[in-house]
Amino acid sequence: METKLIQMDNIKAQKEALYAAGELIRAGEVVAFPTETVYGLGANGLDADACAKIYQAKGRPSDNPLILHVANRSMIDQIVAKVPDKAEKLMAAFCPGPLTLILPRKSIVPDRITGGLATVGVRMPENDVARALITASGVPIAAPSANISGRPSPTTAKSVLVDMKGKIPLILDGGACDFGVESTIVDAAGDKAVILRPGAITKEMLEEVLGEGNVVIDPALVGADSIPRAPGMKYTHYAPKAPLIMLEGMPTRMIRAFQREIERLQKEGHRVGVIASHEVLKGLQDLVPKDLMADYGHQGQLSAIAANIYEALRSFDDKDADILLGEGTTAEGLGLAIMNRLHKASGFQTIQV
Ligand code: AMP
Ligand code: MG
Fold first, then answer.
1. Last residue of a domain, which of 222, 254, 273?
2. What residue ranges line ligand 1, CB within 6 angstroms?
3. Burial, 285: exposed, middle or buried (Cβ in 10 Å; 0-12, 13-18, 19+)?
């Protein structure tokens, strides 16, 4: 199959391309599109056969449910049985935006996309191209991240092409994604709001709306032994091709710790790649060749780091580093989402510094 890539720099001038993309979705095909978080791999969310093509293109385990993307409130009412008060408040505050709510589903939503659960994940993206595509297709669009399962999510159309070339007919190119980490997933069906996946809408932001004490983090996310309630959180994820080890701790100790680890690994004959802040990389110039360094932004600037992290991991795909060292950030605020992804990318291999 030929994979077409269309630039969507001016959606008003690109009505025809959007119409054609909407037609593809209605015809049961898969279209990749930008959102403010990461690129999505979209299909008609009410058509089980169309969604089966998403699972196939990604190599995604079939028990891992898909999130339905909607453009307006009436689409939510089409798929959700009941919107609890808590969810109403969160929608008023954060939708459209990088928030997914887990809500009781209606039977119109195929079992195939919820992994048989009684709930459905719903998100209203803010990105113009995403909204225009959903509107043009006229149906809720089921969309996971547009990567091969287990790989870092794509935040540019070029990275989507690397993973999806020959597998899907169309990629809409809307440039680099703003946030760079997937949506915050909140189960709002029960007593307390439970964060199943951290993202750009932080625990602190949710508490501002619902009150302190009314928002909890799924214990499985912070290292406890329990099984995560978002089925997808139990799989290996976001992993670069070479193994990644994270260095975490005091920012002031980072350069010294990296130097020590790099020297040790190089002595063992490894080609070491480094994913780190501008500040740390500057201190490693004499040890690591430039092409084996990925700069994720300035130390402590979490929004920029989130926006860059997946492309930084992917930048080693065609390099010959056989081991990667990554610099950890704080786990506060947006740092919780960044470190959640980096811990999964590294299989929880961490050195405390
Ligand atoms: P992705 O589409 O790659 O961003 O992954 C979607 C995430 O949402 C996965 O971790 C899923 O397990 C999770 N998810 C989707 N629907 C539900 C649901 N009804 N209940 C709990 N988690 C869900
Ligand atoms: Mg994903």
1. 222
2. 64-65, 67, 102, 114, 117, 119-121, 144-145, 182, 185, 196-197, 229-233
3. exposed
